[in-house]
Amino acid sequence: MTEHREARDRSDEAATADTAEATEAADVADTTGTDNADADSALPRRTVARTAKLASLPLGMAGRAVGGWGRRLTGQSAEEVNAGLSAKAAEQLFEVLGTLKGGAMKFGQALSVFEAAVPDELAEPYRDALTRLQAAAPPMPAKQTHRVLTEQLGRSWRQRFAEFDDEPTAAASIGQVHRGTWHDGREVAVKVQYPGADDALRGDLRQLQRFSRLFQSLVPGTDVKPLLAELADRMDEELDYRREADNQRAFSKAFAGDEQVLVPRVVASSPQVVVSEWVTGTSYTEIIRSGTREQRNQAGRLLAEFHYSSPARAQLLHSDPHPGNFMLREDGRVCVIDFGAVARLPYGAPPAMGRIMRLALEGRSEELYAALRAEGFVRADTEIDPDDVYAYLHPIVAPLAEERFHFSRRWAQDQALRMGDLRGQDFRTGRSLNLPPHWLLIHRVTAGAIGILCQLDAELPLRSIVQRWQPGFAD
């Protein structure tokens, strides 16, 4: 508990340090009035209005931290004060990131995967708020949806559908999904991008990067600054639905007829609209909330199979790992959707990754150190004790030592606390290691997939899956 209290105190200090910067951003933003384009839009596009909303997050958190110190002085315990602060911050986080959509909501979705690593006494207020970001947000009005469809599919777009439901079935960061019937009778999902999503996405990510130090305190199990940088680097891919459709076609072809994985086929696409076959199933979000033990284990095993087999089968890696993108079907398969973020791996997963896993698992510290240095994880001008590197990495690969491993929130929390303890050797070792740019996406996606396994509380044979699909592990 002492460690947790110290971590909260450090978060309070960080919040106060960022107050001046947040105030400056809020002062620049004039939130009065909206332009005509925003009047019927689900995605507010005025830069000043969005900036003010985002600036309200660090301002509100900093203000509550200062108020919390006052309440401590009047006799309330640190635990009581921080529980109240966390609950209010979580509600504000959901309201701002969820209603803004764009880069704000995408950032919230990325964070939500890592909530399993936050200690329960700190995370409970955030858990519901963050997981709600994996689901829906306020929809775009029908007339605006029709306008986008006319621009993207032509004035006769209605003739391409036997039926089209104006009420969206789902809404996400930069688009929403409608159900329809294609002219040939196929049930389809129609993903429509919000007008102004490009400006909102770029503006939000620039603004969020300014407050990366503060947001770090929300989810200590991940590094927020490079996560935001990666989201910014990949936003052009996210915005181009033609590229997303091509990615989905590639995955669908690679997994066609598979007994474990279903990727819906694309029916039609344009820069801001994707039409694909309609699929049904139980969302992983729902399984995390109330799934049976059998559902949790099955969902976890299928996710691991898809994650580790995709580089070999499709030469691609699905790079948006959050529970809303996966469904467990009644036929026992996992259905995967949303291919806006994809890593291209023309030669499959790097064999060095499997070799590093194996060396860490077997305790061969000198060879492990050499492999990490060769890949750039240890810089040429850095010297680290190989035994310290082994001690840092071995707990992370421990799930591969057992025939079946039970992923849990407790395990994720133990790893986050171990690596985040400022007084421990693992923290110093982690700070000395480097993450090469070409490893960033693979590292983030793998960590995200493991985060979902921990949210699912799934038990699965990870070792056999890795042995089959990860080059370098069984060599």
UniProtKB/TrEMBL annotation:
Residues 132-346 form the ABC1 atypical kinase-like domain. It comes from the Bacteria. Residues 1-13 have a biased composition (Basic and acidic residues). Belongs to the protein kinase superfamily. ADCK protein kinase family. One of its GO terms (molecular function) is kinase activity. The keyword Nucleotide-binding applies. CDD domains: ABC1_ADCK3 (cd13970). Residues 1-44 are annotated as: Disordered. This is Putative unusual protein kinase regulating ubiquinone biosynthesis (AarF/ABC1/UbiB family). Residues 14-42 have a biased composition (Low complexity).
